[in-house]
Write a structure and sequence with these properties.
Elements (H helix, E strand, L loop, with lengths): L1 E2 L5 H15 L3 E4 L8 E8 L2 E8 L2 E5 L1 H4 L6 E16 L2 E6 L2 E6 L4 E5 L4 E9 H7 L11 E2 L3 H16 L5 H14 L16 H13 L7 H8 L3 H12 L3 H17 L9 H7 L5 H12 L3 H10 L5
Antiparallel strand pairs: 1-3, 2-5, 3-4, 4-10, 5-9, 6-7, 6-8, 6-9, 6-10, 8-11
Length: 316
Amino acid sequence: MIDLHQVQPEERLSRWKLAVPQLFPGITLHLPHKVPSRGFIQRTRVANSLAWLIDSSPTRVVYSPQAARGDGPQHISIMLQLKGATRVTQGSRSGSLAAGEFCLIDNREPFILEVPSNYSRFVAWQLPRDLVLRHHPHIDRLMATNHDTRNHAASVVGAAMVQTLQASSHLGERQQQAALAGFIQMLGVLDAPGEDACRTPHWRLAQALEVIDEHFTNPSLDAAFVAETLQVSRRQLDRLFQDELNATVTARIWERRLEQAARLLRSPTQVLRSITDIALSCGFEDAAHFTRSFKKRFQLTPRDWRSRHLIHPDAR
């Protein structure tokens, strides 16, 4: 936890500028005042997700995925404004969050947060990106779009978010996993602006993602297997993935394997397993190929990734 009220005024700026980028790699801060009047960050863990309660003085936050080096789990954040206001910009979308409003932000893309005046107090819950996309392949349409909890659908999501985070410390690991999965499923009640029935998530894409999730540990899984399981042509399936996810089926299979391997390598419960064993359990056919792919994806070898997260369990 960080609380600038407990820091001498002359040390607040340096402490804040040092702490925030460490907690959120890829973040650059621009503060208009040399002595921030307030600054507070508290973390809550819910299964394999993190939620952050943040209180900030006027500031401008710029996030670059390239600067983050891709060395942490990919996530989609839901940001709920509690007090004050925050302006959120991602891609071509931009809007100002007032108290009671929330939006979604994808850490695979750059974004900007601006606290224009006074202060901002909000909760940002970093949800596992692969799990969100598994249920909501078209959720990119919701990024940086305001949802007001006075709206019935948005109120369901906002209330569930607050209640889940408040109760999380009293839940066991299995209960937390169920609560996280249930909340992510609940995001389906949200609508993108102007969305109509013809723009709802493609059911066949959702089926394909389920097949990949069920069989990715099998080294023989490939795009042809997925197409055959769904009884569609390989060309049709590839076109669907390109149109909807801007990725190939093969790339999605490899991404799923690498995400699982990264998760196992940073888990203290898997520390006695060899890297080769983990690689094979995730569907890779040999350790050398796995190491090359892993380093390309995370900019660290599997051994360095494991060491980093065992020494610094909070590293992302």
